[in-house]
Structure prediction request, 626 residues.
Amino acid sequence: MSLNLLLQISPEVTPSTLGTANPVSIAIFFLFVAVTLYITYWAAKKTKTGSEFYAAGRNISGFQNGLALAGDYMSAASFLGIAGMVATKGYDGLIYSIGFLVGWPLIMFLVAEPLRNLGKYTFADVVAFRLKQRPIRIAAAAGSLMTIAFYLIAQMVGAGSLIKTLFGLDYEIAVVVVGVVMTSYVLFGGMLATTWVQIIKAVLLLSGATILVLLALSKFNFSPGELFLSVKSQYGADMLAPGGFITNPFDALSLGLALMLGTAGLPHILMRFYTVPDDKAARKSVFVATGFIGYFYILTFFIGFAALALVGKDAILGLDKGGNMAALLLAENTGGSAFLGFIASVAFATILAVVAGLTLSGASTISHDLYVHVVKHGVSDEKGEMKVAKRATIFLGVLAVALGLMFKGQNVAFMVGLAFSIAASANFPALLMSIIWKGFTTKGAVWCMVTGASLALILIVLSPTVWVDIMGNSEAIFPLKNPTIVSMTSAFVVGIIVSLLQPEKEAADLFESEKLRTYLGHGSEK
Amino acid sequence: MSKTNTHEILQSAAFKKLVKNRWNISLSFTFVMLFVYIGFLLLVAYDKDSLKMPIGESLNLAIVVGLGIILFSWLITGAYVYWANNYYDEAVKEIKKEII
Prediction:
């Protein structure tokens, strides 16, 4: 390849149409909302019972669920954020996305099949299976709701600012629109509608990102090598190798554990395993999801570098200090304003789908874990439970909008890390130990979850992430940016010690008989 | 299924082997994945220079390893599905015959 070619495609700074009402994006977005609301109308007719509302009647195929899992997981934050990170910091963005991916194989090996066989609607079903219902449900619900709330705040605030930038719509209006549309999906169409919204969104996002990469690579004779050479000639070889992202290995390990094991503790991800007919379909869905998510991260890697080479770092940073607009600028650069409109509306659809999944899992925690098993002691008619589930959905919809408005303009980026941290420290250890350890007791589980959640929460406040960056103190009390290495390890240790100190004979006996269900699927929810 | 039957299955050699094999495979795969990922993080933390080693005209070791881990994560889940579909499910079928 010739050097001349590289020089010809030097970045040019053109005024962007971002932030103005783009007719294409508005048209596509309305089309998306119309189609998904029609699906919700169709799903509403099939959503009467609890199993239909929470688990789409367990009729989703392994492949469909795999796509929906990918849809749940590929947030706008990872699409725009990771592409932006690659575009501004180079290779370091890939280190981050690898962390998000490697949790999926662990979901497969450790939790997917037992979860499907033992549980009904929430992951707390599995933890509480042979332990005392009320204490476990309360502790697990606290962990779930905290994870969901922090994830939701980050998504809603991201949604508001993103839509403002993309469509020129007011932040407040954007937040309310997202809240109303996603609440309608969940309220009327339950898991069936939410699943199809995820599938459509995943297909749109994957195909949009693929087209974007192809358009960008067409400027490099479809050769990734030429793209890398162009980045190298403009920004130096260091852009293509690890930079300053990881300096302290403990920090890296702690964040790595949070991303990896937190994925296996996200309530809205775990809940999806109840939508398939059996454990075989559950494992297939993880394989499909891992493939699509991995492919997606490879795409974002190329999108980031292509934006760097074609749009230029200055233009990207000029529009947004975090680099979040890199993918959109690249779309405009390669496909014009119509394609920009398409990618922008895909990003909007992405946010809608993710918050719908979060809200559904929050509603099931409130109605199934708290209302049925704590308030009603496990005895409730389906009608009553559904009523509470629907009220919980409306409550969470309103709460999501309120939190979105409350946290406007605040730095909430750390909240995604916090959500993963709590999921890895409170939900994952309890779930894993309840599946594999006979000696795990009710007290052990409660202490495990309480320790994990509270340490994650307290330590992140004392960490450089909040104590220094947000509260403006000069030095952090806790040295690591992410607390997971301490909070998760403590959760495991406390859970084991408390269980050993006071064995629970009934729980150990039930562990044996539960095996028929765990390993053979005998008596699993159909 | 009667209570004694449940007990018999749980105590049977076939069932015990099933559970043992399942965790042998799952935990080995888990450790391989942890090893690969944590190894990668430590490499990034301690030996950035070797990752800069060029491979061919336009690539370097860091890109190959990074994209390789993504591919590996997918393949290892595929390997588990292959094992579970061909060996685990067959063993479950055999044991289930006894229940009926």
Summary: The longest helix of chain B spans residues 61-99.
